[in-house]
Recover the amino acids of this structure.
């Protein structure tokens, strides 16, 4: 029986779930660049299994066939795709993109040389390669809380969080449901020196996001943290691929 990697096209290239933002323009929907025009490269595979994950097709092989929902793409092809658009910001997301960070280095170097800037969306469990800690690259680090349903020893990796905090090139974004969870965030912030902090209400519909935002807003403001949204859920009737 062949492995998913073999079925995806061999050992070379990056394992990609989807690329979007060229044919149908869109925005970065979360974090410090929320609302900025953006291109997205969504990589497949993740080391965590969050209960509320909205991209389970990147890791949940009990529900999805990896051969059907991912493919291998060369760095050259991804570079060509991104350069086909004048949009400056390229968001590399997942899944967990830093699983493949060694193969991402030449892609990032090529995009930076061409005038793009890059944001990684990462769960903060992989220490970033120093080669990626350069001007033009930012990390939106989203450590998972207990609400993810993932054991703490899997979702919190001190060495990785400390590396991101020390880099000066990361923001820390927490998917949050309740005011009580802000104390959990505060513990992580104090322990690992995380700054700046962005709280993002969890929700996959506009109604759910509005409700959770109103639950959290006063308490987040009182802590003088940033409140961010999931713009693609609010803006688009069908947020998949937007």
């Amino acid at each position: 029986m062949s492995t998913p990697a073999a079925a995806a096209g061999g050992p070379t290239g990056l394992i990609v779930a989807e690329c979007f933002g060229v044919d149908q323009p869109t925005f970065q929907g979360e974090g410090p660049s929320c609302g900025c025009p953006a291109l997205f490269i969504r990589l497949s595979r993740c080391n965590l299994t969050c209960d509320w994950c909205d991209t389970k097709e990147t890791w949940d092989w009990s529900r999805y066939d990896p051969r059907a929902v991912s493919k291998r793409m060369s760095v050259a092809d991804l570079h060509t795709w991104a350069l086909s658009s004048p949009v400056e910001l390229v968001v590399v997301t997942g899944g967990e993109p830093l699983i493949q960070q060694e193969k991402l280095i030449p892609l990032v170097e090529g995009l930076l040389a061409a005038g793009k800037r890059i944001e990684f969306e990462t769960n903060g469990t992989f220490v970033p390669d120093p080669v990626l800690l350069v001007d033009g690259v930012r990390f939106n680090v989203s450590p998972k809380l207990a609400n993810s349903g993932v054991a703490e020893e899997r979702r919190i990796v001190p060495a990785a969080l400390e590396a991101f905090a020390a880099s000066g090139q990361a923001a820390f974004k927490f998917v949050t449901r309740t005011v009580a969870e802000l104390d959990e965030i505060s513990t992580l912030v104090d322990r690992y020196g995380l700054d700046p902090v962005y709280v993002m209400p969890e929700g996959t519909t506009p109604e759910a996001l509005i409700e959770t935002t109103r639950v959290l807003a006063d308490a987040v403001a009182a802590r003088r943290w940033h409140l961010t949204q999931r713009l693609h859920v609010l803006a688009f009737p069908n947020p998949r691929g937007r």
